[in-house]
Amino acid sequence: MQLYHHPYSLNSQRVRLALEEKGIDYTSYHVNPTTGKNMDASFFRMNPSAKLPVFQNGAHIIFNTIEIIQYVERIALVSSGSDNVAFSSGEVIEWMQKIQDWNSKFFTLFHIPEKYRNYVSKFIRRVIIARMAESPDLAAAYHCKLKEAYNTEEKLKNPDVLKRDKEHLIRLLDAVEIQLNETAYLAGEEFTMADVMLIPVLGRLVLLNLDEEYIATRPNIAEYWILVRQRPSYKKVIGKHFTGWRKYKTLMKTWCTVRNIDEVELGSNLDYATLTAVELGSHVVNRGRTQVHIVDRSRIWRSGCQLWSNSGFEMSTVIKLGVRNVDCSQTRIHNVDRNRTRVHVVDGGRT
Question: What GO terms are given for molecular function (predicted)?
């Protein structure tokens, strides 16, 4: 059994907690989404969503977190050969789903300094474009991920997104606080998979230095947090990476990896003009001569000093045309000629 995961991923933490609690042996593979490793063709073919975690047992591959945890429970039951191991009850599954419904993605990104967030975002887009050029057969799937990256950036500009996520989190924690007033754990007096789903949420709040606002103000959750941190599974899965000075080590290691890959790997991959009209369904078919195939027009155009698309949009990647580097993050592409599928770039007043 193999698990593809990363310490920062909430869902990865949940699955690893379940595996540790059930005592299931597995082979661990770190896939760092911050450095774009989840966009590598080998991983992308296995999981086109590029999301973590991915659990593989032979030919059986599972992407859904709750389904993985339930699968782990079945493995534990078969392995033990005992009737003492039971599946999660309806109440436990209900709590698991309720916790899973809160998406931590935008809440987390909003609390990361904009400087670092934008740097990583641009880096990931460059990774996607490079991988698309390397694996044309996966162009459609990579195209979806590129659109998703742009949509994420747009949503981060909308304060209502953070407001909705915050309100959702508050409702969830208030419900947990009420439940913990009655029981020691989330679904009773015994530790269950519902707790496995909740613990990473609390860990994320601590990592973002929001524990005073969300945990300390709720006495039952605060007491619960002290209790669950004593478990060996927590110490191995979360505490090992994010307790005290260790979280700075993890952050620094990830950031340095991004910088190194950005300067070395992508520098060589993007020396040719990787024109991001791939966002609209096109891909590079000849790197040497920098030709591009416009899928919807079924024609091949030589790029020269022009960028093209079938509609106007902003590009946000650094490309190289000849010996001149052009930063298109602030460059508007316009003057669309739909018949010839070509646009002109205005860069600092020059065409």
Answer: glutathione transferase activity
Enclosing H/E stretch for 66:
helix 65-80
Quick one: CA torsion of 297, 302, 303, 305, rounded to 10 degrees?
-130
Residue whose C-alpha is closest to residue 135's, from 247, 215, 29, 50: 50
Q: Which amino acid makes up residue 222?
A: A
Q: Are 328 and 295 in contact (CB under 8 A)?
A: no
How many Cβ atoms are within 10 Å of 152's Cβ, its own excluded?
Answer: 16
Q: How many CA atoms lie within 13 A of 152 on its CB side?
A: 20
Name the class of domain 2-259.
Answer: mainly alpha
- 339-351 pLDDT per residue, tens: 443 333 333 333 3
- Which amino acid is it at 173? L
Does residue 284 surpass a pLDDT of 90?
no
Nearest Cα neighbor of 127 from 320, 281, 251, 267 is: 267
Residues in CB range of 291: below 8 A, 6 or more apart: 284, 285, 300, 301, 302, 303
122-125 contact pairs (CB < 8 A, 24+): 122/316, 122/317, 122/329, 123/36, 123/258, 123/261, 123/262, 123/266, 124/36, 124/39, 124/149, 125/149, 125/150, 125/276, 125/316, 125/317
Contact 198, 102 (CB under 8 A): no
Torsions phi, psi of 183, nearest 5?
Answer: -135, 160
pLDDT in tens, 171-201: 999 999 999 999 999 999 999 999 999 999 9
- Percent of the chain scored above 90 by pLDDT? 51
Instruction: Give the tokens for residue 22.
Output: 């059930």
CATH 1.20.1050.130 residue ranges of the chain are 2-259
More confident residue, 124 or 299: 124
pLDDT averaged over every residue in the chain: 75
SS3 state at 25: coil
339: Cα separation from own chain's centroid: 38
